Amino acid sequence: MTSSDFPARRPGEPALTALGLGAPAADPADTSPHAFPDGGTWRTEVPSVEGPEALSVVLKESSRLDVPIHRISQGSGIWMLSDAEITEMVEGCAERGIELCLFTGPRGSWDTGASTRTDSGGAGLRSRGHDALAGCVEDALRASELGVKCLLVADEGVLWTLHRLRTRGVLPADTTFKVSALIGPVNPASFAVHERLGADSINIPSDLTLAHFTEIRRVSGAPMDLYIEAPDDLGGYVRMYEAAELIRRGAPIYLKFGLSRAPGIYPYGAHLRDVALDTTRERVRRGRLALDLLARHGAGTNMSPLGSRLPGPLHRFTSD
User: Fold this and answer.
1) What is the mean pLDDT of each run of 10 residues along the chain (320 residues)?
2) What 8-state DSSP symbol labels residue 238?
3) Whole-structure pTM value
4) Are 258 and 265 in contact (CB under 8 A)?
């Protein structure tokens, strides 16, 4: 089954139709022709899981609320975790068949770059200079040696470098690279470029329109990552009611259960423990709410099997 077989109804559709306020029928041309290699059209992700204690909260709450999870991601960075903490997270995720994705190192927003403090934001999270690039590579190699198979990147040069290391066997062939929402592409051409630079899933900003999803899917089948509730620093958008349509147009897609109206926790430390655990717990509950909406709209089927992680064949630039 693909997203073209989607049986979903629109929110409120029968009642509105009875009043003569029904929406036009969905255009089949807007439906994504793509899917994950397992045939599923959507997967789930819980972001901002900053260490073993937060991971334990996610695993406990996901069991209690019956929230299936394909991927857990962390935002503070590999360098903010000890080897023991990374190993504990790797083992905890492996026991449940969940992909663990950790963020690679130095970023412009945390170093001495003055431009990131300006109103324009300058170069944002990109890695400034050779040393920052080298730090990201060091993080990637260290995490890989500890069993991490998914790496989160916020710089096109870092992405291309890690992809070249993967093609040369320095990083394992089944390592996947996820592009951060903070540099997410906003048009079909830039999305396709990220795919060709080595991305295996690509965060897009949560404010893209439904038409933008369809435009991207006409040029690329690389998995999208999307906050269906975005943190405030990414706009705070809540798009749960659109989840079924986002899947129809954007498949294959990771639905990310973010949280608006919550304090920032990057880079995480023990001084932020209570807020980190509380917000982690609430992200899982938000996931349950989103899944309930999908079920009520007849769109809860065609999720990838749990344990699925690879994206399938993708287009790449030639790596020398």
Assistant:
1) 58 89 89 97 97 98 98 95 98 98 82 62 73 94 98 96 98 97 93 98 96 97 97 91 94 97 90 95 97 92 96 91
2) B
3) 0.93
4) no
